[in-house]
Amino acid sequence: METTYTGYVTKSATDTPGLLLEPPSGGSFRFDPGALCLELLTTGGPGRLAAYEVLHDPAALLRWVADSRLSAGLQLDADDAGVAGARVLRHALWRMAAARAHGGDTDPADVAVVNEAAAAPPLAARIGADGSRQWAPGGATVTQLLSTVARDAVDLFTGPHAHRIRECGSHDCGLLFVDTSRPGRRRWCSMERCGNRNKVRAHRARLPGGEGGEGGEG
Ligand SMILES: [Zn+2]
Q1: Would you say residue 202 has pLDDT above 90?
Q2: CATH numeric code, 18-206
Q3: Is 16 in contact with 30 (CB distance < 8 Å)?
Q4: Which residues on neighbouring strands pair with residue 187, listed in sequence order?
Q5: CA–CA dist 161, 135 (Å, integer)
Q6: How far is the CA of 76 from the centre of ligand 1 (A)?
Q7: Model confidence pLDDT, tens digit, residues 38-57
Q8: DSSP 99-138
Q9: H/E element, 63
Q10: Higher pLDDT, 100 or 215
Q11: Using DSSP, how many helices (H) and how many strands (E) does the chain show?
């Protein structure tokens, strides 16, 4: 049975970049993967990543949009078929990003999924009367949403940071991000989580008499 969910995406008061992730291990942390298309990867994924699935229904897709770097005010008509389409695109993006991160081959079938999604018209942005960035009034479709995500992937995978897609350096993390920093030395999903955990670990390993190489104290 199809359920259609229409709702306005409203953003929380904070404008902090990144998604608030709540891993099963407890706690929460902000993770900015550096690109819209990689933000979709936090909602679950293929294979063993199915354990992290959160895109179960249209409301969940709207929650992701609200948390993502798409700005607020988007009116989206989502149904179960749209959610299924989002998962298909997400799985293709997972495999492509992982291949980039680990130096593997990209499956042309995954590229075809991205290209097909990108071929549809994207979300329509506009400049509001107050000068702010807005979405065109009226309900947008999931097809438009996925086109916008897929076009972001086209930009990422063909752009200057395509070789900077990486997996978090923590052995038990697995989050993927693109390093858009100028020096290009980003190693962690977030300093708040894996960065600090590994700093503590490295510090312990160096004891006694060790010295932190990165400066700063948490
Ligand atoms: Zn991490």
Answers
A1: no
A2: 1.10.3300.10
A3: yes
A4: none
A5: 27
A6: 31
A7: 999 999 999 999 988 999 99
A8: HHHHT-PPPHHHHHHHHHHHHS----EEE-TTS-EEEPSS
A9: helix 58-67
A10: 100
A11: 6, 9
Q: State the Cα–Cα distance between residues 71 and 133, nearest whole angstrom.
A: 8
State which amino acid sits at residue 180.
Answer: T
And the tokens for 172?
A: 């038990």
Residue carrying structure tokens 């962690």: 188
191 DSSP 8-state letter = I
> Ligand 1: distance of its center to the CA of 153 in Å?
21
Tokens representing residue 49 in the block:
């990543």
Determine the 3-state secondary structure of 79 from DSSP.
Answer: strand
Type of residue at 211: E
- 188 CA from centroid of ligand 1 (Å): 5
Half-sphere exposure of 67 (CA within 13 A, CB side): 22
Please give the structure tokens belonging to residue 116.
């097909």
Q: For 185, left (φ over 0), alpha (ψ -120 to 50), or beta?
A: alpha
Q: Quote the tokens at residue 131.
A: 């000068």
In the three-class reduction of DSSP (H, G, I as helix; E, B as strand; rest coil), residue 28 is classed as coil
CA 101–ligand 1 middle distance (angstroms) = 14
Whats the size of the chain, residue-wise? 218
